[in-house]
Amino acid sequence: MSQVSKQMIKNLSIDCVVFGFENNKLELLLIKRKSNPSKDSWALPGGFVLKTETLDEAAVRILEENSNVKNIYLEQVHTFSRIDRFPLRRVISVAYFALIDPENHFLKPGVDTTDVKWFQVNEKIEFPFDHAEIFQRALKRLRQRVRTKPIGFELLPEKFSLTQLQNLYECILDENMDKRNFRKRILSYNMLIPLDEYQEGVAHRAARLYKFDSKEYQNFIDKGFNFQL
Amino acid sequence: MSQVSKQMIKNLSIDCVVFGFENNKLELLLIKRKSNPSKDSWALPGGFVLKTETLDEAAVRILEENSNVKNIYLEQVHTFSRIDRFPLRRVISVAYFALIDPENHFLKPGVDTTDVKWFQVNEKIEFPFDHAEIFQRALKRLRQRVRTKPIGFELLPEKFSLTQLQNLYECILDENMDKRNFRKRILSYNMLIPLDEYQEGVAHRAARLYKFDSKEYQNFIDKGFNFQL
DNA sequence: TCAAAAGTGTTTGCAATACACCCATGC
DNA sequence: GCATGGGTGTATTGCAAACACTTTTGA
User: What is the pLDDT of residues B152-206, one digit of tens each?
Assistant: First the structure.
């Protein structure tokens, strides 16, 4: 521990806003803090940057240490610097955001964590510190992202129905979309590969499943597009 | 100086990417460094954050101290953290960007600065440290900004012609636009107030001058729009 | 009268929207 | 056979794009 703290940059931390999608709801990954300040409250996974790593590297490490979530892409959002944002001393925090499929990640509390859990984004969450602000900022980024880059690959299971994808968009943007127009648009990108597989065990006509064409998907990540409603 | 350095957060700095528009060219404000490292090279105005200020406050202070440019709006862009980005020790730097009208700001070198000057963005600039990367990131942000929010108020004189405004857009995006379509589009926002004033002393038909309707301008800043070509 | 930039409208095509009914499945 | 969600096509509208000539002014 003394060795670890020697390497830490004590005034610089990372907070991770990790979004998931499950049961047709947008979710957020939170950890329960083992120690003070704000012991026992549910907070964004976070920690201090080490002298030997970049911020991107720190974000990946910290998320894994807190929650066991690994091998994901984290993107820097904003750096928060309110003077009293952390009660013990001046700490500036760099926020990262990520999208993952909850099904694919086994959660395990880390060293300074007593629990890790998914929360629905639309339930009221009492955040400690300035985490409410950080979360809002990340959500805003997500909403902007969904309009300009394809999304879903990271949030959905490998095989999914168009309705699932539409639900994801509707959850993120918090608005309803026309089914026919949505399908027309999303299929026109040629980013989805229709499979010869269908939903099973549902009490209605089974939906066709699709997967992403990762080449085309990547292509649109690079080029961007303009997805309206 | 010892008092000042006591207050400094020595591992956290700000770098400012300040854009201007003059003679139909997009410009960048650089300072000439008085001391090592990279003494005498032209660099982004920067400095260290104080313990008593937020990042936004630091950016404003640092830009003024470096260049005398004041009373402007600076927006956070990204935080840079390459481990060897600063040669003397580990320093993380938060980049800010701003848009100003060069005519409205009298430049004056600051304490650690021997000179301040506008450079054209399309000339090759040899940046020290990771300033090339920071600059590129800010330019990208500017290009994205120009598509989604009105721009120009901060970069142009109070009264300007539509051609000037179009030139600004063309410089930022580095592409040519159709004059009629540009005018149609920009006027349709009802963001410009036509004046009963015209260019003077030009060897051709004098262009009508306009100014921004600051209420509508602000409205579009808040709502955003989608400006294509 | 010439050069140089200002100013102005119309047509065309594509893409966004709105909209309603039949289909397959499990119970 | 009914409830549940899956799946499909067309007509309309509005916006983006392409495009060329006349006007004004100073030199």
Answer: 999 999 999 999 999 999 999 999 999 999 999 999 999 999 999 999 988 899 9
Q: Following DSSP, what letter does each residue of A205-225 receive, concatenated?
A: PPPEEEEE-HHHHHHHHHH--
C-alpha A186 chain-centroid distance: 22
What strands lie across the sheet with B208-212, from one edge to the other? Answer: B160-161, B208-212, B192-198
d(CA A214, CA B47): 43
Per DSSP, the three-state class of B5 is: helix
B interface residues, A as partner, C-beta within 8 Å: 9, 11-12, 49, 51-56, 76, 78-79, 81-83, 90, 92, 94, 226
Interatomic distance B121 CA / C5 C1' (Å): 25
Q: What is the pLDDT of residues A153-205, one digit of tens each?
A: 999 999 999 999 999 999 999 999 999 999 999 999 999 999 999 999 899 99
Domains of chain B: 2-140 (3.90.79.10), 160-223 (1.10.10.10)
3-state secondary structure of B75: strand
Six token digits for residue A180: 């026919």
Residue whose tokens read 């142009």: B156
Q: What is the reported pTM?
A: 0.93
